[in-house]
């Protein structure tokens, strides 16, 4: 078996995810023999079995014999996880891995061709799409570093032969043979039967994964072109999306969704987005909330948003001579180009606020100003209002009264709030 190490930064570390089982033990020795620089190992102690302490001691012995630094990470597995104990343990394990990686680091896992075949089959049985059939890539972004699977083209049998030739000792986790778990059932019951009838079954499924990955690259490129062409500020043109045929539109929506870092949406969720959000009345403001964020439509623009911070209900004091004020709920910061000559307050919209912009003839309601400027409603209720007692001086980053101009107050709102920049305002308007 030959290891092809991806390009590494000079001080990057290569971590082996070491459970102590056959596969990861073989990988550790293979990388060590290959002279991989800055090699380290990490073992996750889930605390789920009585033997877990003994397994940690065994991997310490393995690493000590090779002079490979080892980090043992203890995690808490959520027993209420909706995906079951396997999913809960995996989530906790990968969270621990991600937390320890620094920029440029590699996390090497021992996934092999048989694992790939099992993944393809499991996902196919769950009704996955092309992206799911692509299964596991050799190299992928992960945490601050990358996830590397150098053994994806190797069958499990080859790893077993390697371990036996080296006289290696490994841990046999009884959970891996427990057919109550889906992957264990595939590994112990179904895959051997498939292999008996079709000896190349695992190799064929792995090839399917590669072909699906190639196809996914093409449809992802098409989605990228469509989304770029339809981009409007922080969102996408609803009319433009509806002009696409159904398959192409759903493809664009799917890739916009996963680009947010959200779990891949089920077909039913995409259909709901298509029917209830895109096709809503033009004056409607439909909303689709889900576990990772929310989808909103404002006028002719579709917005994919993270969970929005709560709307603050307090009034903040901004002492004179201070140029900056941190806002609550992660709404960013207000800054003045020069200190205020008088103490100020900062509040948020409660309804009924009015302002006469310095360049205007009449006072206008905040709602009117925002509607005419095309400011989305979720931004409107979170916009900081600059006050002097009961007098509204400015809507930070947007409008100032004549008195604010006279006092030299030009509050700039520095925020990452989604949609706050979609109107094209750069702040400091009259």
From TrEMBL:
Its main location: cytoplasm. InterPro entries: Lysidine-tRNA-synth_C (IPR012796), Rossmann-like_a/b/a_fold (IPR014729), TilS/TtcA_N (IPR011063), tRNA_Ile_lys_synt (IPR012094), tRNA_Ile_lys_synt_N (IPR012795), tRNA_Ile_lys_synt_subst-bd (IPR015262). Residues 344-413 form the Lysidine-tRNA(Ile) synthetase C-terminal domain. It is an enzyme of class 6 (ligase). Ligates lysine onto the cytidine present at position 34 of the AUA codon-specific tRNA(Ile) that contains the anticodon CAU, in an ATP-dependent manner. Cytidine is converted to lysidine, thus changing the amino acid specificity of the tRNA from methionine to isoleucine. This is tRNA(Ile)-lysidine synthase. SMART domains: TilS_C. The keyword Membrane does not apply. Keywords: ATP-binding, Cytoplasm, Ligase, Nucleotide-binding, tRNA processing. GO terms for molecular function: ATP binding; tRNA(Ile)-lysidine synthase activity. It catalyses: cytidine(34) in tRNA(Ile2) + L-lysine + ATP = lysidine(34) in tRNA(Ile2) + AMP + diphosphate + H(+). ATP binds at residues 19-24. It comes from the Bacteria.
